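## Example pair
The file below holds two records. Each record gives the amino-acid sequence first, followed by its structure token line.
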Amino acid sequence: MRDSTRLLGTLIIWIGFATTVSIVFTSVAGPLSHASEASLIVIAGIFAMMAMISTLAVWFGGGQATGEPYHEAGAYRKAKRVGSDRIRRLIESLDDDDIYDLEALLLARDHSAARDNGIPRRRQDV
């Protein structure tokens, strides 16, 4: 999503918020016409939180065709260009069980490569 589209979405959200709150506060008829000031402030606060969450969703929530969040998609594309950082980040993202499985896999490959190349095996491997 382009920034101008996000800006337009943000304007629509906050204009809708302002319109809704002004209608709720100035309505002479309806369920909120006899409400106390404290309850109207709470309702306005809830509407403001909804508008803020909607704004955050517009700016950080997506817009990519792949379904990835906007800020992560750009970082992923940049990470593909830098090989060593990509491997380091991959290893940092693994949990303990995955690390143990990876170590076992690498040791098994090392062991089979040594056996295939005619390198003498250690005494415990016999």
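Second record, same layout:
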Amino acid sequence: MEKIRDTGDAVIHKGDPRLPTSDMDAWWNGLLGSVQPATARPHLYGSDAGLCPRKNVFYSQNVWYPFFMQPSTRTYMAIGVALENLLGEALKEHGRLLAANPYLVEMPEVKIRGKIDFIILDHQDEVALVEVKSCGDLPLSPNPQHLAQIEMYCAVSGVHKAYLTYISRKVQDQAHWGPDIAIRTFPIDCSEAALTHRLFIAVFSQLCIEAASLPNIPASFRKTLECRYCPFLDFCWSKEPRAGGGGRETPPVKEFSIGEELVLSDKALVIAKKLWGESGFRRELTLRGV
């Protein structure tokens, strides 16, 4: 073991991270890992509803593909909850917190379940939504799924101002040491076009689920970005499997023809525009509960 002397008199012992894992270490990792059985979702989730209709159909029909919760994933989630709570406590201390984790209001046309991280009075004294994500290094731009999630929350809640805040598990930006934490916030596009698009994806997903059929992969999607962390990636990109993952056959779900998909797409757009027009009513319902 290497000894490193600091600027004072204390001696710091720096351990070798390459030491073999003990039986106890393996035991802890075994306790933290778990397998989640394949379970079909009964409704859309806000975290996914506004991104990919194909993924939403897979989730609604999934009785074949279990998910393994890695110990590292579970740990990241626990850290994320702690950091979110930290920000929530600060908002409450300063009288800026209107609500923490309120459920989305219901829409009769499409059921979307989800909880908003925070409804706040922002730095301009305006009502806004905040979605908090933990990360390693701070991103230069929002993750597509995170962006779809917060825009979906805006579209459903009727609150058309929002922020996506990333807070690093590294606490400080190592390039700029100081008292501040490593945190980066992106203002969200809450225009009619952006939010109607999210409503359209959710409604189109619901129509596809009711038809028990898969739409095509969205033309703008890339395997390495929009699809990167999707659990169904290998089903959609079977000819280009991830390294070491191996391709999988598409599950037994009927696929739409282009013509069938266009008919549902037109219907979904009409409903999405109607839902956008009712945003003010849903905003009132959302804020009535804070």
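Notes on the second record: The chain is about 40% helix and 20% strand. The two ends are 56 Å apart (CA to CA).
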